[in-house]
Amino acid sequence: MGHEQDRGGRGAGHVLLFPFLAQGHLIPFLNLAKRLESLGHRGGTGQRRLEVTIVSTPRNVAGLRRAVPAGSRIGFAELRFPPSDHELPPDAESTDVIPLHAFPAFYFATELLRPSFEALLTELAGRQGRESVCVLADVFLGWTAESARAVGVQHRVFLTSGAYASAVTFSIWLRPPAFPRPADPADEQALHDFPDVRVRYAEFLNVIVTEDHATNPMLAYLRRMVTLNFRHSGGLVMNTSEEIEPKGLRLIRKLSGLPTFAVGPLIGGRTPPDDDGTAARRDGDESEDACIKFLDSKPAASVLYVSFGSQNTIPAAQMTELARGLEASGRPFIWAVRPPVEFDGDEEFRAEWLPAGFEDRVAATARGVVVRGWAPQVGILAHASTGAFLSHCGWNSVLESLWHGVPVVGWPLLADQVFDSRLLEEELGVGVEVASGRVFGGLCKGWEHVRDAVDTVLGDGDKARDMRRKATELKRLVRAAVSVGPDGEVMGSSVLAMERLLDSAFD
């Protein structure tokens, strides 16, 4: 079938979304699919007809199908990925279920999806017409840009991290700054691509992972993926907005040389991870009930929510310091805990990983709720009693904080998270960093520092008031960016960026 035109003369199109196999990537891709579907079915003269398909492995597709609302026309395509063929655990179709040391092998194995993806792409282009197909793939699947070019279809790369963090991280990967040996954690160097941006040695190691960056195979893989995207893709799609990251967008445009489309924030609900759904829904309902009941009992903007994301966690020693700091602050809190980083993440959480009697004391005084595993993050952040979020600063969590106007106590753990934390504190003025990274002990200064940071954000001082004011203003701006007026004529910056993206791909 050739290239179709709808009644307003705008090209119909089929967008093939291909996320990296990790929860933190699947979620924003699903939210992007929902946004695209809404654009494709909004109706009206000149409105484009869009077909949206998410490509992934069978287990991931099954989970995504459950998260799609009833009546949705989002499609799915499965690519076979037998993990055992790659010396990985049999259920390893996502980073969520593999240990950190196996990440490089998993990343390398995803490139073995290429033949089946190219077969899918060739069949689709032959049936619908090459000009009707656009691949929108994850940055860590840079080989898809080569595949799209070979088949003759459009390609755009979707970055699930922020613009500022992406620009700084990619620059470090491509042209690592030269630090002296030995270096102090606080030593700084300017980036080759951005002389006005300086990174500390501790930040550098959290991005590079090891100092032998000249021979590190994982870094070589990441560098190759970024280079393939910059060389062969037709543009960058960013889960951010011009209002959030003007500097970051300027940097990523300079580094990539590609058209950039800031279409975010792409915000959606989160569901508890599950196998068949039954047990997880039961556990999730219990967690949600406990959290919301606790929030309902507290004053406005008084509660600290603590979570390091669905996959990240901290060492047991730091967990103890965090618990002591929370207790010393006297502030009410909800803490979603996972086993410490040195233990298997699938283990049952043990009381011994927290100070003796901690959970009993905070429960008896109605001072805190400790949730094992999953917590209803969106519901917590949306609640009027939530006053701050102690976060690992993963980009999905950052966007959810901004969307709900909640200031952040930053405890970034690795990679782009350290630069998300910097953005929140230095550029946006809605964050305070309490610890950073995993090297050098995470530069955690102890429970007193936790207590003081929590007091700074939730207190009545000038800094707390200023952070709350800025968070409220950012909430207004990010929601306006994705808004469409009742007449369809007035559109936010991110909606206009999405229109430009589709025009570039199909018109």
UniProtKB/TrEMBL annotation:
One of its GO terms (molecular function) is glycosyltransferase activity. Coiled coil: none annotated. It is an enzyme of class 2 (transferase). It holds the Pfam family Glyco_transf_N. Residues 15-153 form the Glycosyltransferase N-terminal domain. Gene3D superfamilies: Glycogen Phosphorylase B. Its EC number is 2.4.1.-. The keyword Transferase applies. Belongs to the UDP-glycosyltransferase family. This is Glycosyltransferase. InterPro entries: Glyco_transf_N, UDP_glucos_trans, UDP_glycos_trans_CS. It comes from Urochloa decumbens. Keywords: Glycosyltransferase, Transferase.
